[in-house]
């Protein structure tokens, strides 16, 4: 049949008076593609005008061959195909589309003015049609049918995207699991393969230094060995504590009765012996502060805070540690130094691991001291915060529950007394 005698695709129903469906695009999805196949340009133009309100990406081609090429390049929500086309007609094109694995389930809607005989329509369904529209086509009906396939396609795309995201999350979780296993292996290596020979080195150095008669050169050499070994021991201990905190959700503590003032005196005496050129002062508002804490862990936290204060303050200024009582439930410890204030850009990450301050030559520091101190305080159910200004220097405030660990009541009591303008870890 010559093209000029073809039945137009539009019906006599005026599109201006028809109720157009709203845009069926699923939020967050890209426009679905709809392939229009007809050898008559005016019919393609009419189809585009009808389907434009759907918001889909309309691709128009004028032959079955062009349709097959288009389907190789992109994915489509559905195909509107004219049956009567020269060369490769709509039925044969549909058969070839169905023969390809990628497009075998692609919805195809035939548009034709041919006979309504049942045998012909059945043949069209056998070739892959999901629907059969006879010309002249009602615009509302056509839009409604296509909108269903567009929405189904977009929902399918969403499901595929969610499946990809789920697969990516699983991949990340597997990588995190492998990283956790690696950290556990590192704990074993550091805990056994390094500490055992390190203990032998430190023991040998100590035995040699205990000898009464030793040339000065040898004594200085063994003193260097002992200092280096002790520095390595501190680094190993910090790495072990860091890994335990990461893997176990916090540093484990074993509570026991003790006096906080006695603990502060013990820690400061050790620091004075290690750094005799520095002044560390203890100030107690009460003669004793008994409580239930893990004294070894708490000594480690206080030593880290005092070491930090010594590191970032002038050598001719003292470092002060002060204890006080806050009611019956909590005790406070303040560690103060007169050094330069902590830079503002460092304060948000002050208690994070591997963060070191500026203006220090102590490269043996891993930047774990404040992180470990904070983790120990948290394990006791307490809080650790800092105030740092030009006028008053830098003070770390430690609040601890007095008789219990990890209690929400004691944690709230510590948090309640923290000034709102202070940095709270």
Structural account:
The chain is α/β, with parallel strands linked by helices and 425 residues long. It has three domains: 3-163, Response regulator (Rossmann fold, 3-Layer(aba) Sandwich), CATH 3.40.50.2300; 174-248, Orthogonal Bundle (Helix Hairpins), CATH 1.10.287; 256-424, Histidine kinase-like ATPase, C-terminal domain (Heat Shock Protein 90). The chain is 47% helix and 17% strand. The protein has helices at residues 41-51, 64-73, 90-99, 118-126, 139-209, 216-248, 260-274, 295-311, 344-347, 369-379, 408-416; strands at residues 33-37, 57-61, 78-82, 108-112, 129-134, 256-259, 280-284, 290-293, 319-326, 330-337, 383-389, 393-401, 423-424. The strands form three sheets. The chain has a six-stranded mixed beta sheet with strand order 7-9-10-12-11-13. A five-stranded parallel beta sheet has the order 2-1-3-4-5, sandwiched between helices. A hairpin with a 3-residue loop joins strand 11 and strand 12. The N and C termini lie far apart (83 Å).
**CATH C-level category of the largest domain:** Alpha Beta
Residues in β-strands, percent: 15-25%
Rg on CA atoms, Å: 39 Å
User: Main sheet, how many strands, which sense, barrel?
Assistant: 6 strands, mixed
Biggest β-sheet: strands ordered side by side in the sheet? 7-9-10-12-11-13
Distance between the termini: 83 Å
Number of strands: 13
Count of individual domains: 3
Mean pLDDT: 80
GO molecular function, one term: phosphorelay sensor kinase activity
Catalytic activity: ATP + protein L-histidine = ADP + protein N-phospho-L-histidine
Organism: Corallococcus sicarius
InterPro entries: CheY-like_superfamily, HATPase_C_sf, HATPase_dom, His_kinase_dom, HisK_dim/P_dom, HisK_dim/P_sf, Sig_transdc_His_kin-like_C, Sig_transdc_resp-reg_receiver
